[in-house]
Structures are given as structure tokens and as C-alpha cells.
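Chain A, query sequence.
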Amino acid sequence: MLGTRTGRTLLTVVAIAVIAAITVFLLVSRGDSDTAGEPSADSAPGQVVRENSHRLNDAPDAAVTFVEFLDFECEGCRAAYPLVEQLRAEYGDRVEFVLRYFPLGGHFNGERAARAVEAAAQQGQLEPMYHKMYETQAQWGEKRTPADDVFRGFASELGLDMAAFDAAYNDPATLQRIRLDVNDGEALGVQGTPTFFVNGDQVPVQSPDDLRNAIENALQ
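Chain A, predicted structure.
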């Protein structure tokens, strides 16, 4: 009987030692993995604004940053567009306005529109193409046919270098750039468009005054 108890005790001690050794190994391995695989500040998801994010205005001394995650095929974004433009006119010298892509999966041409805007941005024509998309949304939005030729026509109307536009529009790096914004939005909890942030805080919008009030509060 004594021998049985002694045997059980030894087995228990050995089991505890093994578990402890495995735990230490896993902790050490996890620590090495986290250190080696930790993304850099530039690649880490969940940033409201990045260095390469598109600015719609030049306000180098701005104390407030206004960010919109948008989808050019989104009717809500189109409805908010005049208000955003009004805010830009009122606060553009004091507030930095930032555009971030967030094409929704249910919009057939949303990602294509973002690619067209990004391709135009590479030729310094971000804002004209941004305006063009909202002004013509009724022409190509909410359709199940590709609008590639429509967007190419916009590029031609804006006088872009069409060979460069075509190359950028079809470049996987352009899509990767758009998905960087989408990944950030998802990490920040963006679930639909338009979604707005003022100085890093998401602004719930119940009325048009909510965005203006958020800007005014941030400026104070």
C-alpha cells in the first residue's frame, strides 16, 4: 500500500515537472515569435491616418484631422459629399481632411472606382477624380456590369496619361494600397460607409450638425 502511494506521488511530481517544462517552453517560444513577427508601426493595422493616406487639402498647421472611410458607390457617401465639401470650405485652413478607401463587398463597382481614384492620384489628380465619382454615381452605381470603360473615360476627360492610368488601374499594388485602407478600417471597427473620425475618435452621425460639432469641439 505504501509502495502504491509512493508511486503515485512520484508520478504526480514527474507530471507537474513535465507540465512546468512545457509551459516554460511555450512561453519562451511565444515571446520569440511575438518579437520576431511583430509588425512595424507602418504595417500595423488599425491606424486612422497613415503617412501615405490621401489628403484632400493642404493644411500643414492643422490641429484637427478629419477622416472619412468611404465607398464611391455608396449612396450614403454621395449624400454626405456636399456636407463634407461644405466643411472643407469652412475649416480647410484649420482642419486636415483625409480620404480613406473602404469599398463594400456588395457594391459591384466600388473597388473599381477606388482603383480609378488611386490611379488618378498617382498623376496628382486625386481631387478631380474624387469629385467626378460622386457627380456621376447615378450613371454607373448600383449596376452589375463592370464600369472600367466609364472610369477610363473619366481619366481621359481629366487629361490623364492614359497608358500610365491603365497601368496603375490594373497594377496589383494599387489594389493592395486600397486594401491597406480597408484593413485599417476593419481593425478600427468600421462596418459601413461613410464612417468619420475626428482626431482619432469615431463620430456617430445622427444629424448634419454632429460632424461640425465634433470639429468645433476638437478646435477648442
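The two ends are 81 Å apart (CA to CA). Residues 54-219 form a domain with the Glutaredoxin fold (CATH 3.40.30.10).
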